[in-house]
Each structure stands twice: as structure tokens, then as C-alpha cells.
Design goal:
The complex is a heterodimer. By secondary structure, chain A is an alpha+beta fold. Chain A has one domain: Alpha-Beta Plaits, CATH 3.30.70. Helices cover about 20% and strands about 30% of the residues of chain A. The radius of gyration of chain A is 13 Å and the shape is elongated. Chain A starts with a strand and ends with a strand. By secondary structure, chain B is of the alpha+beta class. Chain B has two domains: about 270 residues, no CATH class; about 100 residues, ACT-like. Chain A, domain 2 (Alpha-Beta Plaits, 2-Layer Sandwich). Helices cover about 30% and strands about 25% of the residues of chain B. In chain B, the strands form three sheets. A ten-stranded mixed β-sheet of chain B has the order 11-12-8-7-1-2-3-6-4-18, with helices on both faces. In chain B, strand 1, helix 1 and strand 2 form a beta-alpha-beta unit. In chain B, about 50% of the residues are buried. The chains are: A alpha+beta, B alpha+beta.
Chain lengths: ~100, ~450
């Protein structure tokens, strides 16, 4: 069944320079494995292709049942000189949560 | 057992959570983290104009609200509100204490300023991202570690005031001082860094930057309580907040904060240690009560990270709103008009439609036609006058643009850019200066 990520998980955005970090944390810890299978770095890069211009690396955190996506070249140069509206990229966690996934 | 609380998570944070914590939380230490990447460069500019300034603009307000309390109950404050001028900040605190007639000892920690080093070694230092030859550098500050603060704590000072220090180090230092942790015990430093990282953003672990009505509900956010950690000698901790404050603290808020701004969870670098978050365990042990155990560390990085501020010109902005039938088309037309008039003059010009494309850049659209749209035009400029043109052009849409444009606003800001570099530890000389009331 296809579902939006916001139905099953929450996320927080962070920034360092032009790098965007997005956590992805399932509400139910038993959904961690299915999320690992469904939300790959490649799929996130494709979903955020209008925003993230560089590499996306995924870190797995089984100890807390969470994923972390580290996205290069994502913040229009970074908070201090960006011409964007949301210079930190604080709203971008909700861009990730718009992704549609098929959970086994 | 040791109690440390976070009373501010950024320079503009609320004032009263710290006051409540100092009064009611039976604390040993209250940490106020108030220094963002760019803040110190802006502070450096203020110091150039007046050598007695360059510390956090809210220092006086925060200290006035806390000083009478900590003078009574002995809570010690550790803060980076010294920004570009910890010594003047210490003098200011002494001045306030004398006015209040409370005896106090303040230790200023300096040594983070590496501007001279950067100037002397401009050819060999590598900047990330790179700087242009003629970029004018305003400030360069290395992130100092916990050791400098530990030395300041050894003086017995009631308030420790620093410039640039890594945020988790502000919390790790009192743990090292209290428990006698060695600067070589990487396991303990790793655990302490986990706790410091969880606390450093204040209300972000107690329901701030978390609430989502109907989905992740947080009670009484207007009175968000800030976090307190009760830490054991082995580096395990419980995190909680004061009863009768707003907010929520559970495994979800702690997970979000653990990963916040983390580049590699297995190698979280600070000046003190490379901490590993992949073995941290988070367990709810009561209402608004979370136990944090585990975490590792390995030997600290060779060099120190430094933030370098440089003058990056100006940004001009203008905004105007369209609403009702065909609002999106009218806002788009307005954007085209401004673009046609300005694009030859400004290399970098951004046209945003607030309500449609401004936050997520138009890539994720599922909401259809908005009822109202705000056009925003922004551009970089080399001079203030040029930057002002952006807002002026948007404002001129009132009488020259599409129908029904209202609420035009214009803004100009001077931009300070930040790049980073790694500097050798020898370039940083932590120094403690103690000031006391008469």
C-alpha cells in the first residue's frame, strides 16, 4: 500500500553550511526495517531533486530506529549568503515527509 | 550526581525559562548557549565601532534576571555570551553585580580569536568553501573545547563567560570538573558530549521545533520548559523538565534532537572528542522523563575548526501580495515584470512565490491553486544603493503592475558570509581572566 511518509514517520531538518540533514524516525519502531528498504538514499535524492543538487548519504541508526539523510549542496549556498526564503532549510523536513512509499 | 540545565538555545531565545530553572530546578550549573555561526562576526563589527562592545546584545537582560537568584542559591552559569569580547562582558556583569550589591566572581575565557593567525597564513590555510582573493575577512574564531572552561571553573567563579566554544563543550566542561573526568578518557567524554548535544538547543528537546497539531501534539507551548539533565559519574543521564511547565519530553523529541545537525552519527566531532551516537540508548522512564545511556568516543581531532566571517555584500528584497481569483497568475506576471527590469543589472536574482514555491522551490506540489500569493524578489548587490533598488522596483508595482497588488514591503541587509577552516591547536591560546566585585 502506498503511503506518504508523514503518515508513518517524523523528521527534523538541520543545516551546516550548504549541507542539509534530515532525520527520518518512524512513529512505530517496528517500521524501521520497512523504512530502511523503502527510503533509500537514491529515492530521497530523486524526490528532492529540485532542492538537493549534491550527493545524498544515508546513515542507519538501529539503536534508536532512525535514519539520517545528509544532503550536499542543498541550501542555495548556505544560511549566511542564501537568497532563499528559508535560508536554514528548516522547512525541508516536510519536503521529505511528502515522499510516497510502499511499505511491505 | 550532577544537575545541568540549558537556559537558552540561541541568542534570541526566551528569557524566563532560564529564570525558572535557576529558581526551582536545584541546579548545579545553568548553561546559556547564545552564539550562532554568524553572531560572532556581527559582534566583531560592533566591537570595531566601540571596543567596549562585541558581547551578546541580550547579556545585560539575561544577567539582570538571573544574578539575584544565583547569588542566593549558588547556581553557576556557563555561557558563550562573551561573543567577540568576553572580557568586556565580564566587566559588564561585575558592573551589574555592584549595582545589585551582590558579591560575585566572573571568569572570562579568551583565546578563540585566530584572526591574526588567519591573516598571517592566508596563503596556506584552506577555506571551506573557498574565498575569493579580495573578500574582506572580518573575524576568525576557533571552536575551543571543554578544557579551557574546566580551568575557568577551577577558579571558583560564579559565572564563566566565553567566546567561541563548541556548544556541547559548554556542558561537558562542568561534567569533567565535577566528576574529575580526564581529558583522555574518550569513553566518558563521548557520553558527556551526547548529553551536551541533546541539551544545547534548549526547548528543541522539550517539544519546540517538534509540535504538529493533531499529529505530534505538545501541551502549553507558550510556557515551554527547558531541559535539565541529571548526570551520573559514568556518563549516563536522565533528561527532564520542571513540572508545571509546558512542552513534552519523550523518545521522539530526544531522537529528533540527537540527530539534529549531525553529519555522521558515528563520528560527531568536537574539540574534545569524536563521539559515536550509534550506541546511544533512549528509554522513556516516566512522564517527560527520558534516560540516555551508551555512546562512545575516540581520540579528539588533530586541529580545531574555525569560523571565518567575511563581508559578502548586500541583499535587497521586496514583497507584494496578490489574492483571490487568478492570484497566482497575477503574482507570476508581477515577478516577470520585475525580472525584465532588473535581470541585466543583478547576476543573482530570485523570484519566489510565497505560498507556492518559496520554501520547497516548487518541486513538490500537490495543493493546487492558492487563495493568496506573495511575490518575493531578492538579489545580491555590491552596494547598499543597488540593494535598495530591489524593494523599490517591487513597490513600484503598486501603480505599474498587475491588478490588486497590496502590502508591499522592502528590506535591505548587509551580508556577513561564513566559511570554515581547520587551524592547528597551537594557534589557540586559552586564557582565563578573573574579575571580582569590590
Amino acid at each position: 500500500m502506498k503511503r506518504k511518509l508523514y503518515e508513518v514517520a517524523h523528521s527534523r531538518a538541520g543545516d551546516k553550511g550548504d549541507v542539509l540533514m534530515l532525520s527520518l524516525i518512524p512513529y512505530e519502531e517496528k517500521l524501521y526495517e520497512p523504512l530502511c528498504n523503502a527510503v533509500t538514499a537514491e529515492r530521497v535524492k530523486h524526490h528532492l531533486r529540485h532542492i538537493v543538487k549534491g550527493e545524498v548519504v544515508r546513515y542507519e541508526m538501529p539503536n534508536i530506529s532512525a535514519l539520517q539523510f545528509v544532503c550536499q549542496n542543498a541550501l542555495l549556498g548556505g544560511v549566511t549568503t542564501s537568497l532563499g526564503m528559508d535560508t536554514h532549510g528548516k522547512t525541508l523536513s516536510y519536503a521529505l515527509l511528502e515522499m510516497e512509499v510502499d511499505l511491505e | 550526581m550532577l544537575r545541568i540545565a540549558s537556559g537558552a538555545g540561541f541568542s534570541g531565545d526566551r528569557l524566563e525559562p532560564a529564570v525558572e530553572l535557576a529558581q526551582r530546578a536545584r541546579l548545579d550549573y545553568l548553561v546559556l548557549e547564545c552564539l550562532a555561526e554568524r553572531t560572532i562576526a556581527l559582534a566583531q563589527k560592533r566591537k570595531q565601532q566601540d571596543p567596549a562592545l562585541g558581547y551578546d546584545p541580550l547579556l545585560e537582560k539575561r544577567i539582570r534576571s538571573l544574578l539575584p537568584i544565583i547569588a542566593k542559591n549558588g547556581v553557576r552559569i556557563i555561557t558563550n555570551m562573551g561573543a567577540a569580547n568576553p572580557v568586556s562582558a565580564a566587566e559588564k556583569i561585575i558592573e551589574i553585580a555592584e549595582e545589585f550589591k551582590v558579591p560575585i566572581k566572573v571568569a572570562a575565557v579568551t583565546g578563540d580569536d585566530v584572526l591574526m593567525f588567519i591573516h598571517k597564513n592566508k596563503e596556506t590555510v584552506e577555506f571551506f568553501p573557498s574565498l575569493n582573493e579580495n573578500d574582506f575577512i572580518i573575524s576568525a574564531n576557533a571552536y575551543m573545547g571543554a578544557e579551557a572552561i574546566v580551568k575557568a571553573l577551577e577558579t571558583g567563579a560564579n559565572i564563566i563567560i566565553t567566546g567561541r566554544v563548541a556548544d556541547p563543550s559548554l556542558f561537558l566542561a562542568p561534567m569533567m570538573h565535577h566528576f574529575g573526568w580526564s581529558a583522555e578518557d574518550e569513553e566518558l567524554l563521548g557520553r558527556g558530549t551526547v548529553i551536551g548535544h541533546l541539551l544545547e538547543c534548549g526547548g528543541q528537546i522539550t517539544g519546540g521545533y517538534f509540535a504538529d497539531p493533531g499529529i505530534k501534539d505538545v501541551p502549553d507551548m507558550a510556557r515551554l520548559g527547558f531541559p535539565i539533565a541529571e548526570i551520573q559519574p559514568d556518563g549516563t543521564a536522565v533528561i527532564f523538565k520542571l513540572p508545571e511547565t509546558g512542552g513534552i519530553l519523550n523518545r521522539m523529541t530526544v531522537k529528533e534532537q540527537l540527530l539534529y545537525e549531525v553529519m555522521d552519527p558515528s563520528e560527531y566531532m568536537t574539540p574534545d572528542v569524536i563521539a559515536d551516537f550509534t550506541s546511544v540508548c533512549i528509554r522513556e522512564v516516566g512522564t517527560d522523563l527520558v534516560e540516555v545511556t551508551g555512546g562512545h568516543g575516540k581520540k579528539r581531532p588533530e586541529g580545531l575548526k574555525a569560523s571565518i566571517g567575511y563581508e559578502a555584500g548586500f541583499i535587497g528584497e521586496g514583497e507584494i501580495t496578490y489574492a483571490g481569483h487568478n492570484a497566482l497568475k497575477r503574482a507570476e506576471l508581477a515577478g516577470d515584470i520585475v525580472k525584465t527590469r532588473l535581470q541585466d543589472r543583478f547576476k543573482e536574482l530570485t523570484i519566489d512565490l510565497i505560498g507556492v514555491t518559496s520554501a520547497h522551490r516548487g518541486g513538490i506540489d500537490r495543493f493546487g491553486q492558492p487563495y493568496e500569493v506573495r511575490l518575493r524578489v531578492a538579489a545580491k548587490a555590491e552596494s547598499l544603493e543597488d540593494a535598495q533598488m530591489i524593494g523599490e522596483e517591487v513597490e513600484a508595482l503598486y501603480t505599474n503592475g498587475p491588478a490588486g497588488g497590496g502590502g508591499a514591503r522592502k528590506y535591505v541587509q548587509e551580508v556577513v558570509g561564513i566559511v570554515s577552516a581547520i587551524v592547528p591547536r597551537e594557534a589557540v591560546h586559552p586564557t582565563i581572566l578573573v574579575k571580582e566585585t569590590l
